[in-house]
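Side project, low priority. Logging it here so it doesn't get lost.
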Amino acid sequence: MADTIFGKILSGQIPCHKVYEDENVLAFLDVNPLSAGHTLVIPKEPAETLDRLSDEAAAALGRVLPRICRAVIAVTGIREYNVLENNGSGAHQAISHVHFHIIPKPNGTEGLGIGWPQRAFDHKTGAELAAKIRNAL
């Protein structure tokens, strides 16, 4: 993953507008923002998708994401925002390195646009699926 843009940012080959860094996490402004304050938060551990990330790296991300969200809110004054993380190209992941987007939503035109095609829920099938997921844990 050192050859991804995020790997190159982590190694210092590509500069970024850093907003946060510790031993496990780096956060910086997106150079193609959907709105002012659009921030990317990445683990320093190389992992393509969230399920491949170690528990330790995931915990480090979980500790800092709320803190970075609060800072983006404080600076932009925008209280509505999306936190987005995609896994795999079929799910719109463009860079093969885990990354979270914090995207302020200042109005109806800026920020993340999203569709949510809801489907009917079958409770019997849902119960079976929930049991299978529990057993996989």
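Brief comment: The two ends are 27 Å apart (CA to CA).
Revisit when time allows.
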